[in-house]
């Protein structure tokens, strides 16, 4: 396991740990059923906290092991126990993950995740899920991120969040306020899902043709193209900034990048994205962040280590060249 934390009382919802009595089959079945019913929420929280599906799965597995070995007869609220454990483990892991990302080659993005079957990824709302927002959340402290995720995506009250984080309700409100302000200050007003897809379609059409004028028409003045390539050959390691520069950059590589590729539309992190494949293998996931003024960000995920889950969904995709 990635995390080693001793058992402790969680958010005042359980008494000090006692030796666990042997479980009969019915009790274990109930415990399993309880865990499975809340598992999508646990994964959704952990993923939003950490930005990688593998680490989120590790967290969920650790929570399951703890749930099995806990004296469940003293747990007054099973869902609260499981969520609190998930959040605290994610906070612990995020602190070490942040230091690892400091040595990452080029920009670091969250791992894209297919949300076609579960658009909100276990949450009440599809907040704190889009790649552009998750990138912004990387700049928050772990407690700020947890408070924002629980409030905005899962609709937890400030009191409930305070219990989970073991903070006062006043401090919790401040965490949420600071996190909201950071996201709002860094991001323009967003367009509807339908308009977002139209912007992405227009970008793909112009990019494949190398149409400089069409690209500039849909870009904002301060548009930025950012690529997470993890150091692979051919992936830009620094962001490209500005309408003229980004349009020329996209147009320049049109003749070779788009040759012999297949484009597959998917819902990735809650919004329209395109999987770019060549020879049956995915080479990139691309999406845009757009406001009524135009496309402000083009996000490319090209690190092969982050494309595995997308590759598994490729056969079910609708495709066009």
Structure in words:
There is one protein chain. The chain has helices at about 25-50, 55-70, 80-100, 130-135, 140-155, 160-165, 170-185, 195-210, 210-220, 245-250, 255, 310-315; strands spanning about 220-230, 240, 260-270, 270-280, 280-290, 295-300, 320. The protein has a seven-stranded mixed β-sheet. The radius of gyration is 21 Å and the shape is globular. Strand 4 and strand 5 (about 280-290) form a beta hairpin. Helix content is about 50%, strand content about 15%. The chain has two domains: about 25-185, PhyR, sigma-like (SL) domain (Butyryl-CoA Dehydrogenase, subunit A, domain 3, Up-down Bundle), CATH 1.20.140; about 195-320, Nuclear Transport Factor 2, Chain: A (Roll), CATH 3.10.450. By secondary structure, it is of the alpha+beta class. It has twelve helices and seven strands.
